[in-house]
Amino acid sequence: MTTQTSKRPGVPTGSDALDQILAGGYARERVHLLEGRPGSGKTTLAIQFLMAARERGETPLYITLSEGEDELLEGAATHGWSLEGIHLYELIPPELSLDESQQQSVVYSSDLELGETVRLVMNEVERVKPDCIVFDSLSDIRLLAGTALRYRRQVLALKHFFARMGCTTVFVDDLTEELDDSNLHSLVHGVIRLEKTTVVYGADRRRMRVFKMRGRAFRSGSHDYVIRTGGVEIFPRLVASDHEQTLQRDNVAGTGVEELDALLGGGLDRGTSTLVMGPAGSGKSTLSMQVLIEALRRGERALFVSFDETRHNFFRRADGLDMDLRQFGERFEFRQIDPAELSPGELSHIVQHHVDQADVSVVVLDSLSGYQNSMPEEQFMLLQMHELLTYLNQRGVVTLLVLAQHGLVGQMQSPVDLTYLSDAVVLLRFFEAFGELKRAISVIKKRTGGHEASIREYRIDREGIRVGETLRNFSGVLTGVPRFSGSDSDLLASRA
For residue 11, is it within any domain? Predict the structure, then answer.
């Protein structure tokens, strides 16, 4: 007898992202457990699995004990789906039916009740002969079983029956019982848990975890997902090491301002991240826009992600600086992000999509204060940002991170310290001279090469950014209260 050792192809789950996480989808002719609290999206994901089977020409069967057929059809319609071609079996055990003709007139044991229910399931499977099954949900079997031992034994019996019938099966469990939530994990081939977290303000956050998948190098950890019209959309956790380094562009990207390039030691190196930090109004976003528009003029593609500014105000401000970004058409993408609604995983997905699919070479995140608000705790933000920056660096992208510091003058504080993650740090400050409020710029760090250690004045006007000569009579920049003791001739003159 010859033993079959070749690896069988997986069964698509109905979500390309979940197939990626599971390293190939569900295991063929095996039983999987999809668990989560009510409202986490289990039914939606299960229906996607069966619709994918239908599209492949296979026979799908949905066995429901908890939802009626009309409820399933109505729920599918909200996503624009038709369940035609999917066998729906609404199982109503005799002991739960209100039809007196189906109820016994004498008291009988729960063993008999559970046995009748399971027999109805087996009869339907033998009649339909499905390739893919969703059994929704195990909570009803748990209630009928009465004890944990009998419940486990009955699930084991169902598992062996479905495997003997050659079915790829998904058991759905809503975790409503306060039992050991892992008591079935050892019985099934794979376990996927959907989690929904309620935050103080903003949309609920949903995350998915794969606890096990036998014989697969699946992607562990938490993966953000959302439920939208059209189904469950999953955002696999970004792992920078999965992406090879692909530096194919010139090593240095100029800013379009000669004095600024000199301050930066020639410009911004490809595959590096630059942190632009300073108080509100100091010109952080404008400086980032200058780098971005110069890249567009060279024929590159760019992405600007804004947490703090609307599309209308962004383009209005760009027009005021004589930066016509609309002329670049599809080569420039502006994305307005609501941190109360968007998960960090989805943000990483957006950035990764533009870099991989649209060949974006410059990415601006404005600002990290808004990004921090989308994270539950600061340490997770740092880990997430580390993976994102490492990925962008490996793809040769010039990344600019905008960080607003607390306060306008005096001692400055940052809401989060990302200086150690950034390859370069540009510091912006206000200073007072001759009755006017002016701006100063300096580079305090650059890992990939030399840079000027000087402090220069710069102005923002209709001509964009202008950078002046070194302010040699200048002190106290790191205290947050720079002091200038030079003459008026050393400063940039205003232009109408």
Answer: no
Question: Quick one: which H or E segment has residue 173?
Answer: strand 168-173
The residue from 194, 212, 237 where one domain ends is 237
Q: Which of 332, 337, 341, 340 is nearest to 350 (CA)?
A: 337
> pTM for this one?
0.85
Contacts 24+ apart (CB under 8 A), 353-357: 354/301, 354/303, 355/303, 355/391, 355/392, 355/395, 355/397
Tell me, yes or no, whether 280 and 190 share the same domain. Answer: no
Which pLDDT belongs to residue 374? 60
**CA pair distance 369, 367, nearest whole angstrom:** 5
Q: Tell me the C-alpha distance between 92 and 27, whole Å.
A: 29
Residues 6+ apart with CB under 8 A from 435: none
Out of 192, 217, 237, a domain closes at 237
Look at residue 103 in the predicted model and tell me its pLDDT.
42
Residue range 348-396, pLDDT digits in tens:
999 999 999 999 999 999 988 767 766 655 457 778 888 999 999 999 9
Q: For residue 484, list its beta bridge partners.
A: 474
> Nearest 5°: phi and psi at 405?
-95, 150
Same domain for 277 and 191? Answer: no
| Beta-ladder partners of 426 | 276, 443
Task: pLDDT band for 6, please (50, 70, 90 cuts).
Answer: very low
Whether pLDDT at 2 is above 50: no
Give the distance, in angstroms, between the CA of residue 200 and the centroid of all CA atoms in the same chain: 20
Report the pLDDT averaged over residues 285-304.
95
Total count of domains within the chain: 2
DSSP string for residues in 131-161: SEEEEE-HHHHHHHH-SHHHHHHHHHHHHHH
3-state secondary structure at position 45: helix
Are 26 and 150 found together in one domain?
Answer: yes
CA dist., res. 225 & res. 383, Å (int): 19
Is the separation of the CB atoms in 44 and 76 below 8 Å? no
496 vs 396 pLDDT, higher one: 396
Q: 111 lies in which domain range?
A: 16-237
Q: Same domain for 48 and 91?
A: yes
* Helical segments of 238-303, H only: 258-263, 284-297
Residue 179 placed within a domain:
yes
* Euclidean distance between CA atoms 337 and 365, whole angstroms: 10
Across all residues in the chain, what is the average pLDDT?
85
The per-residue DSSP string of 318-362 comes to HHHTT--GGGGGGGEEEEE--TTT--HHHHHHHHHHHHHHH---E
pLDDT digits (tens, 9 = 90+) for 410-444: 555 555 667 888 999 999 988 777 777 888 899 99
Which of 306, 371, 308, 309 minimizes the C-alpha distance to 332? 306
Q: Can you give the CATH number for the domain in which 215 is found?
A: 3.40.50.300
> What would the pLDDT profile of 205-219 be if each residue is shown by its tens digit?
899 999 999 999 999
